[in-house]
Structures
1.
Amino acid sequence: MASPAQEPALLHRSFTQEPYTVTSASGSYLHLSDGRSILDACGGAAVAILGHANPEVIAATMAQMQKVSYVHTGSYTTSSAENLARVVLSPHSDFQHGLTKAFFVGSGSEANDAAMKCARQYWYEKGELKRTRFVARRQGYHGNTIGAMSVSTVLGRKAPYEDILMENVSFVGPADEYHGRREGETESDFVGRLVREVESEFLRVGPETIVSFIGETVSGATLGAMAAPRGYWPAVRALCHKYGILLHVDEVMCGTGRTGTYFAFEQEGIQPDIVTIGKGLGGGYAPIAGMLINGKVVDILKAGSSTFNHGQTYQAHPTSCATALAVQEIVQREQLVNRCAKQGRKLEQLLRDTFATSKYVGNIRGRGLFWCVEFMEDTAQKIPFPAEMSFGSSVQLAAFDMGIAAYPGAGTVDGLKGDHVLIAPPYTVSDEELVITVSTLKRAYDQIVTQLEDVEQP
């Protein structure tokens, strides 16, 4: 550990392990101060959808700053913000999503907090003041602010703050087929059980008290690219309609093309009331996220106070919006969502072929360019490694030493036990880079398995 005189002034995530210094980045690669180049196979945190140093995005950012870099949205707007909203809300396919307004902020956590407030204001404007509760899912993650963390269940991140989080939140089981589907239970039976649990919770707390049901359309880092079983989301959408509860889907990680359609919920055939997007919106070139709402919500706000009673200093920041607009225009022009789906099929096949006989690989799952490899000590019985072994993190660190960055996950099963790594490369990833990613991940896995089995030898 560094001496006090050498302590960095920046508060890093860890006091004991300093991060690597990135001096530059280009394409799919990060270039470190120690001379190494790392293939960014997870886009940071499923963020860098165009890779790094795209000249068109950089030029758009500079052009906006030369015109106007900041305005306060209490009085002003800019063409970059207005145009970004139109592009995001424009039809990206034949699917009719029903979303009509966009609200841009600086992070996914802020977007989910804004969505929770917007949903509450919807009921406030309707005079249904008893609606103060939120229902979310276990093993779900929605952000680090107090509101967003209150509807999340990442145990390690919540532990110090449990006593100060919102109490008007209850949780149902995750749409987790791999860990949750019982022996002999069909997919349809499993979905039925999940949906009955949701309805039971609605009835237990009183549907007339519930603001919204919140869930990731495809679960992100906590569960590891876990899509819901077929029929789950249409059934939940129907339940919310039955009881007049707003449906808020969190697509901060899985949206804006990551799963092979622009909105992940398109593949579920549903129309949510509120959607949050983030990481892929600006592709990492600027901090930006968004809340999108449908006409039903907009109409009630208009008919009531005719305001959204929420605002932030950097809301619809002109430079961030111009940057994100350039990213989204490239995504549309280059048909990168379709390319994401196509490259995703190649990534899936590579992962399944490469890890087909791997003793400790329990599950490979994902959509588009959003894939997870989950590890189990006993794959037949689905028994995870002891948490203290940090098997997934060990694989990720070994892969990093070999030149690729994957995203580690722990607590996959229940918040404490379970290990996985996520692969979420740029939509521009080449065939060669996919091969390098998977082959390197396999070498890293083999290395950790060899070390494990050497320790187990008498």
2.
Amino acid sequence: MKKDLLTFADWTPEATTRLLALASEIKHSPASYSQVLAGKSVVGLFEKPSLRTRVSFEIGINKLGGHMVYLDSQAGKLVGREDAQDMAANLACWADAIVARVYSHDTLLQFSEAARVPVVNALCDRYHPCQGLADYLTVFEQFGNTTGRTMAYIGDGNNVTHSLLIVGALLGCNQVVVTPPGHEADAGIVAHARTLAAQTGATVTTSNDLSAAEGADVIYTDTWLSMGDDTPLSAIKETFMPYQVNEALMAATGASHVMHCQPAHRDLEITGSLIDSDCSLLMQQAENRMHGQNAILTHLLSS
């Protein structure tokens, strides 16, 4: 029976820990996995533009011995030509897996139902599971563990926030989410993260007050406007600027490292000087996208 990865919400702590270990193993022993996808082809369907996601998947699949076919649904004029389920069913006739970066999670659900091959969520409006796995691989590498650590996310409650909550809870990492009023993470996802955290001993805290982030090991932020959101920056800058991640916030919280999934907007959600500082883990996160994704593909396709 084929398996998908649309979100980690239905995973167990044990399975998530094994996947994290696999990502680390693939990173440090790439030759041992160089033929995992030999003879296999993966379609990368992109509704949204991408730098890190496309390049990390394309090069990563090649390193596993496979081949990726890139489909830009906007430039290729595929949008609206046929129903999502028909597109997925057709792609499954040729490909061994579908990696999809889409606007709506509903599109992924249609793909999953129609395709007889694994579907991987490379980003949607609700989740970004590949980013979440890469980020906790980065935390693991930096601290030697995830259990008992604390990650404080500051900014807009979005798809990245949701996956950080879920994967972090599964890996025993305490979660703090600080957002401006009205920009909180989805309440249902927060509640589910708390249920998962109860299994690992982690805590989940949400707040509108920056003081909630005190004591965090890592401060994490993301862009204030998600890709595709055409809200003028001027309309939200006054709301979000007090939540900027900067040197003063790092000192106030005591956090030793800063993370951002990128693309980053220097001197808006995070200062440029902090991005370039010794406490920045941004490029390590970016590199780990490939290793985390390779672990996901190895898990889904090598059995």
3.
Amino acid sequence: MALYVKKFGGSSVATLEKMRHIVSRVLNDKKEEDQIIIVVSAMGNTTDDLLHLASKVENNPFNREMDMLISTGEQVSISLMAMIFNSMGTPAISLTGAQAGIIAEGVFGKGNIVDIKPERVFKALNEGKVVIVAGFQGITPQGDIITLGRGGSDTTAVALAGAMEADICEIYTDVKGVYSADPRIVPNAIKMKEITNAEMLELARLGAGVMHPQSVAMGKRYHVPIHVRSTFTHESGTIIKDSYSKQMESNLICGVAQDDNVARIAVLGLENMPGTAGMLFSELASNEVPVDMIVQSARKLDDKTIDIIFTVASTDLHQAKFVLEQMKQQGKINKVMYDDNCAKVSIVGPEMLGTPGVAARIFGSLGKDNINIDIVSTSKNSISCLIPRTYINKAICAIHDEFFK
């Protein structure tokens, strides 16, 4: 007997026909004693449609009522899928995030799972039922519905798999696995058989859309293997786990990631004294604006002022502007410039920072294609370049060709 958690995204459950295909596939693959939990997203573009509807009423993107609204999309999916299982002779039950025992805290629209109490899920499984759980949502300790943000259904699935000690968590998507680059942009991208949690977490953090960072972090926390595979074929995909198998070897570079949800902000003419940067970023942090790449520079060695340039997600730019314009009115800062035409391209690899010439190869490949670099940042496993958004596809292909010839 094995316990499987299987997650299907919005495109996989967009129509009743697609749902019936999933139910048939699950039943064909299921052995008699297997226990199955299915986590689903809202059908197709349902969440976007609900957000558009709400925008006609108010502009605040994150609040209790917004989460109450958009959480209904998953409830439609789980109830319909449970009905299909039941109509095909297999008992099934649908559970919301709250009913499945998923406890989350934080800001509405960006909740974090803090605990899972899956007693009701276990009870239903032991009764021989397939359990269909609403992804993307949980309940706060105060009893409010809270959504988990982008990639929230993946996070739900991996967290459930970890808390329930499932044998594996299968993430079904519209691609066949994790590739060395986005195969829609780089036709010769390589599908990986395996990748470590640490490498996948870095790729996801830097924009690889196949998995969300929070879901990969859950896999790392619970040591649960994640199989990323296609909804539309029976091919094996990519296994994300703690370490490579003995027969597998890690490469210098495991992948190229891109993120075009990037805006650059320059705060100019700040006083060059201890605490200035802390004041600026504390104000942004207290208003839930995450900051990524940061450059601080003086225009000349003895300058009494500095410029601080940093990036935020384009989706957070509105909130960042609100905070910074308030700081201007309060006299804490002077001049701010905004640029929402940016993208970030990154390479990820476990050993590259200890290998001479990697950065030179990145910069050289971009230079050959006349792509200017605005900011560079590095971490233990990655090097990222901020470039104009219009060049992102060209940059991905250039860097991939350099390292995956």
4.
Amino acid sequence: MKVLAVNPGSTSTKIAVYEDETPHLLRNIRHSVEELAEFPRIIDQFEFRKNLVMDELKANGIPFDFDAIVGRGGLLKPIPGGVYEVNDVMLDDIAHAMRSHACNLGCLIASELAALLPDCRAFIADPGVVDELEEIARITGSPLMPKITIWHALNQRAIARRFAAEQGTRYEDLDLIICHLGGGISVGTHCHGRAIDVNNALDGEGPFSPERAGTLPAGQLIDLCNSGRYTKDELKKRISGRAGLTAHLGTTDVQAIVRRIEEGDTHAELVLNAMIYQIARSVGAAATVLYGKIDAILLTGGMAYSNYIISRLEERVSFLAPVYVYPGEDELEALALNALGALRGELPIQVYQ
């Protein structure tokens, strides 16, 4: 079985070609700010990114003869985890999605490219809107605003399965707390194969991150919204995009911030330590969901490469459960393996409706 995986991100398009479980091509195509500035909306980048994928395959002599093309899932309506075949309902929902993110391009590219081949199927897997919350976790202090989840479902599940395999068990038999530490931060509580509680890592819940504000004081936010100082779009950016570390310190580069700390920047030290503090506090809260019975805490994502962050986070949470670190993300491999499982009949193919 031959699979093409496509993972559009905010500043890159990652692609992989797998024949069965063997990767034959892994590419991270980076996009400059100037390149993307030509497109008023993210959805307008579709042709640009699709053509880059095709060009990369040609440049590497990869024949265009796939059994499946799997894209990163977009910000659709809340759905259970798993593999979904791209259909017209999904494409229409993406075209009218309320939230804008480059991941929305994944199913569009997969569908368009798969249509060029007679027997090729288009899939998505574990999109960021996967919702398996227990009902008690949905209740907030206002019936007008029930809790929603937008999180790093694909990577968290991939890391969970990887950890389970290393331990000689199954993801479905474990109780885990998994922290994805990237541009956004999601802290998921996984109970026997379901993420029963997890924060909205995109637009306003949980710890602040390099790009996102996390939970904010509601009263002050309402006052700011009515101050006349910012437009709605500007305020949205203050929550996701120009928030978190970049709002406080002018950069999302953790290594650069650590260098500033080593050179004596006490403000940078306070802000970075505050982010670590908030992550640890979220892990502690997640522990109560599992009644303190936790098999492991898994730390993943790009910031998991930082010894500064990981060492301080472990100091605060290791008393709860053993901590395992998986730097980076396995999203391309996870996409490919999900598609292979669907093609082989090992994973059910769900219908988006």
